[in-house]
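Slide 14.
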Amino acid sequence: MPIPVSVPGPAAPAPAPAPQPSLDEAAFVGVGELPSGRYPERSFMGGLVEVAVAAVRDAALDLSDVDTLLLIPCLHSPADQADLVFSRVVEELGLNGRVKSSAMLHSGGSTSDNAIRTAASLIAAGHARTVLVLQAEKWGSAPVGEMIDMLTANGIPREWEKASGLSFNAVGALIARRYMAVSGSTARDMASVCVALRAWARLNPHAMYRDRDLTVEQVLGSRMVADPLHAFECPMMADGAVGLVLTGAARARAGGRPWVRVAGSGGCVSHYSIGQEEDLAVLGWPVAAGQAYEQAGWGPEDADLAEVYDSYAAVLTVALEGLGLAPAGEAGRLFAAGAFSPGGRLPVNTNGGLLSAGHTGVGGGTALLAEAVRQLLGRAGSGRQVTGARRAVCGGSGGTYMDSQVLLLERVTR
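Slide 15: predicted structure.
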């Protein structure tokens, strides 16, 4: 049984009551997801269609209610990405002539955050009534060599950093090394992050590693990839698909079921070249979090769960500290003490995160956001559902963790 550990937030005045939902603001009303892993028999477009139907049904709506599609890109295939750009999904869903707009957004792992901001703005401005946000990836079934080449070329400056041999695993190692040096965290502390996420994945029927236990000894005994990162501390590429439905609050209220609102939003783009980042143990999280908490009127101490980008253990610990969900330098040790595991002080990445649910490319952040919405709607299922979940902190980051994006979500029942 994990040891309950208090995780105090930064000292702050008692938060003011959250603003009343506006009738023209966006409301999450449905979520759909396909299992992550390797599914070579599942086609890319077929996965998108299946998850779109699942999300709309979960919202108790019809496909004909959708008037706007916002698509999150894939990384496995330029041809499939072109199909997204040129509206094939509209046709596959039988919505020719019904949809006002179909567009693709891209900011890497933070795309879902920016897609939700876009959807919310369109709804609030009256330009959209019901928005379907879709993502699918065939990363796990794609040729491994091609995906490795892609990951060593995109998002890393070709002129100097790529020439030095920098890759995404090396970037993760640099962040881990810096974080461990600043915090005094040990290799066992960092391995504990992976073990905690695996414990959550074991409760998630959609997770890639839902049927495999993991121990600290296994993590530390796996092959060294980029010192100090071992193989089990690196995310595994996976296929997956996620759909989210947003509509206006007035329509959500008329439906008579709980819905989820965006209470606050913040962001900080801190670099492109990893060598230009001022501190790899901080990144842009404190700036983004401050913006979001101020807008929401509540703070980290009010959160019931967190769903934060975790392609490497240190990426997650740095983010949790910047979000005020753990004291500076303590997140690694808190993971080791069980604070963020099932039964711990604060549920973190309850789907298993990228490290255990599977890294579905740009969709890794989308899956975490979908998990937050699912939890707040009370639809996470037995064993994983956070009892009484009302508020969630969500964080995404793209490229070489070039940005830190925060969405604060709230459950609404009125």
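Speaker note: The CA atoms of residues 351 and 371 lie 6 Å apart.
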